[in-house]
Amino acid sequence: MFKSGVYYLPMRIYRTAVISTFSLLLILSIWLGLPPEEDYIPAYALASKVIVIDPGHGGCDPGAARGNYVEKDITLAISQHLAQKLSEAGAMVVMLRTADHDLVGDGFSGTLAARKREDLRLRVEKANELKADLYVSIHTNADPSPRWHGAQVFYNRSSQIGKLTAVMIQEEITKQLGNTKRKALPGDYYILRNTTMPAVIVEVGFISHPQEASLLADSDYQARMAQAIFAGIAQAQVRSYDSEIELYPDR
Ligand SMILES: [Zn+2]
Do residues 120 and 164 share a domain? Predict the structure, then answer.
């Protein structure tokens, strides 16, 4: 029915069309607002797990440093974000330091190298005494060349759960931050050799790479890195329930 070139819809059809459109938009916005299924984090798997977080270095041992960027500050900041997320999921978190110091007391009189060895020994000893379920050490990487970048996770090759945890953390960092192609690797480090529980060392990136260093010092990036590590730990805990962890072969 045309009247002076204007097409009139019957009111009933018009109303139905408006309601349908709004309903469709509502459903679409709810659907888009939901996280995709693959981002689901099985945080329940962390309940009552004892997790030791080791913010690398501290006090008179700054770790690696480039310009204004200092490893001990970055490791502490990311560890604090991680501790909060793990605690919220119900894990019992033990931070080996919460401020700028090492674990060696004031009375120590040896060389700086001896002090660093003693510091590492005390970190491992504390975790072993606690009979923790997992040891997560946070470090930044460094190289004389500024070209290398990318986070990388290390594990003790004789620990299947350690390896599984490292692989899952590496996968989450790769997926969530999208700036590393590195793979989790076995590593021959004091902490990995001497802890009596599954342990991983997360090298969160290269402080010697200018762009990555500035990201590592950024609070939002630190929180995103902690979120990826958290998700990886949770994914590994769920999978470790499965006695068939051989299902996850070398990768
Ligand atoms: Zn370090």
Answer: yes
